[in-house]
Design goal:
Elements (H helix, E strand, L loop, with lengths): L11 E5 L10 H4 L5 E2 L8 E2 L9 H5 L5 E5 L4
Bound molecules: iron/sulfur cluster (2 copies).
The site of one iron/sulfur cluster has 14 residues, from loops.
């Protein structure tokens, strides 16, 4: 017998507006899914589209309104 598994289809992921982002990095520690990643030598984080679940936690954390949820197929 296999244990029951929940399959969640991700339809939205976060989009980072590089013009609005000031590199404060507040969004990095709030993501539990490693959807926001740090690039060595760069202040601005990057979205990992394979890990982001579209939970929206980082969106409400960003003081610059640089993060928005967008349909995954648009990215
Ligand atoms: S919280 Fe917003 S402004 Fe700060 S690094 Fe993340 S996306 Fe950029
Ligand atoms: S939307 Fe959720 S999963 Fe995606 S990067 Fe933000 S906090 Fe992480």
């Amino acid at each position: 017998m296999f244990p029951q598994m929940a399959v969640i289809e991700v339809t939205y992921i976060v989009n980072l507006d590089e013009v609005l982002c000031d590199g404060c990095r507040l969004c990095l520690p709030v993501c539990k899914f490693k959807g926001m990643i740090s690039i060595p030598g760069e202040r601005m984080p990057m979205v990992d589209p394979w890990s982001c679940t579209g939970c929206g936690t980082c969106v409400t954390t960003c003081p610059q309104d640089a993060l928005t949820l967008r349909p995954k197929e648009e990215q």
